[in-house]
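This week, study the protein below.
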Amino acid sequence: MVNADQLRPLPVHEAGSIPKTWDDFIPFAKEVADKNGVKTAFAFNGAGQSPAEAVAYQFGGTSFLDSETCAYGSGECIRAARFTVDLFDRYKTDSRDNVNAREAFGTGNAPFTFQWSWFIGMLDRTYKDMHFGTGPLPASDGTPPYGRYGDNAGFSATYTDDKKKEAAEIFWKMLMTTEFQKEFAPLRGLVSAHLEVRESELYKAQPHITAKEIISKGPAVNDDDPPSEISTFRNRAWSAIKDGGADIAATLKEAEKRANGVLSKMDNWLLWGKAGRKQGRKSSKATHCLVRGRAIPGVE
């Protein structure tokens, strides 16, 4: 996300012209922050392990090799975690003591922030005077994938009839293409489900508490991915690394070991991983195409 107003004093002021490599982006972000009198160049504090996960994909890594194998301790994930920690300690684009990245960006105290595209909806509601733009996340070599290029981009395609497995996989892969994501990402924070929720009196009274409850009244609900048992290991590992100074490699390898112990005993219907689901695994869920918890009528 880009604060358009803070870019205007500079010769380069369009999101598409922002440096595409980390080596070029980091000094550029610092220059923009300095010219606008703010300390945070690239706000990502409070985003959890998501920035490290995104960078791991840039390095050719992935959190899951398949539906039974976690890869938190892979060389790519370790390298990505070290780079993300360096954004705090070496490059100082943000601070562990800083406010949440959303607040820093929304209040004009950071020219850039790492956020998912749904943050557009929050900006539209909470920071209505913000003039913002979107741009691809910098990458090590300036080429895609720029961010988390995996199996949870707000979509899930499921099936119960084995004859529809191939069709579901083809459809899901289409949703993951760069062409589709580029068209969808700027709109994701304002999809119809979100606008529909806004009209509810219950939502207007307690928006953050009730949004999930309102959406869940639809014909289907999109389960989280990865399963909560696995997320716990990842979240604890990142907290230990970021806030406790734990050894990165040892901590991630231990999280991977524990996660694989859980995965070997379960069948999570949404977890595919980089290589797909393990052969022989079958889903027991109803056939739906889901967009952030809302089923698309007539699509199987």
Residues 149-153, 189-195, 214-224, 280-300 have pLDDT under 50 and may be disordered. Residues 153-226+277-300 form one domain. The first strand starts at residue 2 and ends at 3. Strands lie at 2-3, 42-43, 64-66, 69-70, 112-113, 132-133, 155-157, 289-291, 294-295.
